[in-house]
Amino acid sequence: MKSKIILGLGISLGILSSCNDNDDFEIRFDAVGDVYVRCQKIDNEVKYAPVYYAFSNIDMSDAEVAHTDDDSPVIALSKLGENARSFSATPSIEDYSTDDIKNGDYNFSLTSTDSETLKVSDKLLEGRIDPIEITKFEYKAEDHEINMEWNTVENRDIYHITITTEIDGQIIFSSERLNENKFLLKETSRGWDQNYEMKTGTTYVVSVSAYKFENSNQQSGYHINQESVEYRELEW
Question: What are 184-188's contacts with CB under 8 Å, separation 24+?
Answer without folding.
Answer: 184/145, 184/146, 184/147, 184/148, 185/145, 185/146, 185/147, 185/148, 185/161, 186/143, 186/144, 186/145, 187/143, 187/144, 187/145
